[in-house]
Write a structure and sequence with these properties.
With about 160 residues, the chain is α/β, with parallel strands linked by helices. It is about 40% helix and about 25% strand. The longest helix is centred in the middle third of the chain and has 18 residues. It comes from Hymenobacter fastidiosus.
């Protein structure tokens, strides 16, 4: 796991670092090099979380971001996730088991009802995204998109 991830999880109360309050949006997470990893924007009236991934994604980065997303789900009880990796690259295939068997059950327990996934133009990431969708669609409504607006419209239709 990245040094940032270890520092985050070693903190006595990691939730204190993830309080989305008025005037503090969006919330940014950074990788161990200080580069943006995730940008969270929460829309309380819609119960929607927009998670926009950046940078080169690794298994550790996805798991770290997934843990953070779970902490926010527990705190905010959002029902709809707009998961946007259109600005990211990288290989995160080894995170798929964790996403299916660890992340998803907890996210659903905290209220997640549907997920729209905007994928990157990278052909390899399209393969990983398709595997991700295949695994998760057995458990909840999830759909992939190439455009953010189409993903948002689909999520609104799920409500």
């Amino acid at each position: 796991m990245s040094s940032l991830g270890l520092a985050f999880y070693d903190a006595p109360n990691p939730e204190q670092y993830l309080q989305l309050r008025d005037g503090q949006q969006p919330l940014f997470l950074h990788d161990e090099h200080g580069s943006p990893l995730l940008r969270y924007t929460y829309y309380p009236a819609e119960e929607l979380m927009h998670a926009q991934w950046h940078s080169n994604l690794t298994t550790d980065a996805v798991i770290f971001g997934g843990h953070t997303t779970l902490l926010l789900a527990q705190q905010l009880k959002y029902r709809w996730l707009l998961n946007d990796i259109s600005l990211a690259t990288g290989d995160w295939t080894e995170a798929l088991d964790w996403l299916e068997f660890e992340w998803l059950p907890q996210a659903q327990e905290y209220g997640l009802r549907a997920c729209a996934h905007v994928f990157t133009p990278s052909m390899y990431n399209q393969f990983v995204t398709q595997e991700y969708l295949t695994r998760l669609q057995a458990y909840l409504p999830i759909q992939s998109f190439t455009e953010l607006e189409a993903a948002q419209a689909w999520l609104h239709g799920q409500q």
